[in-house]
Amino acid sequence: MTYDVIVIGAGASGLISAIQTARENKSTLLLEKLPKIATKLKATGGGRCNLSNTLNNTEFMQSFGKNGRFITTAIEQFDHHELMKFFKDIGVDTHIPDGFRIFPTSHSSSTIIQALEKELLKLNVTIQTSTKVQEILIEEDKIIGVKTANDTFKSKNIILATGGLGYPTLGSTGDGHTIVEKLGHAITKLYPAMMPLSTKETWQASCRADTIAKATIKVDIPKLKKLKATGDLIFTSSGIRGPVVLDFAREITPHLDKYDEVPILINMVKGKNEDDIIQHIKVQSSKNPHDKIEENLNSLLPNSVIAQLCKLCDIDETLTFKSLDGTKKNKLVKLITQTPFTIVGHDGFDKAMITRGGVSLKQVDPNTMKSKVIDGLYFCGELLDLDGPCGGYNLQFAFSSGYLAGKLL
């Protein structure tokens, strides 16, 4: 029961790590606490499995914010081109239907998982599921093995790929953070990310049937005004969701912890400003002077949204703009371009697709993914203090960091 390498966690990063170590002719044991491998990977992208995207390496790293440079070696050695080639070599064709996001042509995560499992078995990787690691065993600051409830497995090299805290029902319960903190590794504060947000306002519940395309959200706090995101917005009975919210949640949750409430402004008219809206109103009014307000604006916004914005301004949307006084008109125009909401909460890690925070990058060598604290310990994937937006970023990083860790340099 001695192995060259033990990989803990059979998610995206752990699977590719185990494949890489086996390709390096190292005997490999893959341990997974759930009954099946790749449970979270199976749910990725609604089961369609958005593997990566076509950004060049520089833009890809920039999308991860201030810590993005940590990815340099991992992405240079295993970028989206290498990822597509890797899957092609193990029998999975991929494509880029929208010119940006990369999917398996089957649009099924099961295709990816089956191919990875087949490759693991081909390489004689020992896979043991329903096995939770309780402790990493250390002697003189060096790895000697791991302890589970029933066994002890010996190895001088451990790759930790246990994920974060997002979607605990899919296996991410922070076990890795607990284990390595005991070994002297610092864990930055953990926040749920990539999920819907709850608002103090309730009027948006009347607009749930409509998606707002290319909405821009920004934080309405002076020192945080640089925080913004653009994408499709969906209203819910209790708040907001949609791709733009999933992306922006990772920026909001740490500040919710600090401020309790985070005011935001949403531009729902594809970035148009007040002057643009006034011009639109003038043009439409000259063409159709008897049009009601809702008819004048319905090429900009859904009727349900127009009705609610008018109500907020104490305006009857069945009137014409000509019959409105200037004050109310200006108030409505401003509200259209800068609709205020107050973020007051979220559903926590139960609904979070990823985790913000993790193993401090200061204690990990970005050229190898090796611990600077414990000899023989490697990290990869969501366990680390690094997270990106939705659109294949986090999965690509999981594969890239897993590949690099698996080389055991």
Structural notes for this entry:
The strands form 6 sheets. This protein has a 6-stranded antiparallel β-barrel. The protein has a 5-stranded parallel sheet with strand order 6-2-1-10-21, covered by helices on one side. It has a 3-stranded antiparallel sheet with strand order 3-5-4. The two termini are about 25 Å apart. Helix 1 packs parallel to helix 6 (about 110-120) and helix 1 runs parallel beside helix 13 (about 395-405). The chain has helices spanning about 10-25, 40-45, 55-60, 70-75, 80-90, 110-120, 175-180, 245-260, 275-285, 295, 305-310, 325-335, 395-405; strands at about 5-10, 30, 50-55, 95, 100-105, 125-130, 135-140, 140-150, 150-155, 160, 190-195, 195-200, 210-220, 230-235, 240, 260-265, 340-345, 355, 365, 370, 375-380. The protein has 2 domains: about 5-190 and about 350-405, FAD/NAD(P)-binding domain (3-Layer(bba) Sandwich); about 195-345, no CATH class. The protein contains 13 helices and 21 strands. It is elongated, with a radius of gyration of 25 Å. The protein has about 400 residues and is of the alpha+beta class. It is about 35% helix and about 20% strand.
